[in-house]
């Protein structure tokens, strides 16, 4: 679709995201305002043990005011490759390193208003290491057979979008 950005006004500059109000003009001459969240992106990883269990992190998420079960994930640092971020987050959050990491897919978390792209990886041949949590991270490590994790999605016990997409992709390929 052809359009032209007429104005782009910064509304908020934050630690993890920036908010802009853009005025755009379509090829037919119609103008519209779009509120956009610009995000630097993230990477996430499904740690899969040799006996077919997935390692998830349980953590309190302030925005939704509840504990969530998620795959390890984090923001991509400036200049960092998504694969490097995924490996870093795996070790920081779970205390495991991966002997093998496979890229699964990229997706946009909410492309109607946000630029956040998340790169998803599968980690196998896990090697015990050392957990390195940030000062504001409080996580509990949980492991579940992959089939049980899929059932937890159906039961509404796993509600995080990236985790659902990643687990379903792994389930489809590992079966």
TrEMBL record:
Motif (Nudix box): 74-96
Cofactor(s) named in the record: Mg(2+)
GO molecular function: hydrolase activity, acting on acid anhydrides, in phosphorus-containing anhydrides; metal ion binding
Domain Nudix hydrolase stretches: 37-166
Gene3D superfamilies: Nucleoside Triphosphate Pyrophosphohydrolase
Cross-referenced PANTHER family: NUDIX HYDROLASE DOMAIN-CONTAINING PROTEIN (PTHR11839:SF18), UDP/ADP-SUGAR PYROPHOSPHATASE (PTHR11839)
Domain of life of the source: Bacteria
CC terms in the record's Gene Ontology section: cytosol
CDD domains found in the cross-reference section: NUDIX_ADPRase_Nudt5_UGPPase_Nudt14
Entry protein name: NUDIX hydrolase
Organism the protein comes from: Bianquea renquensis
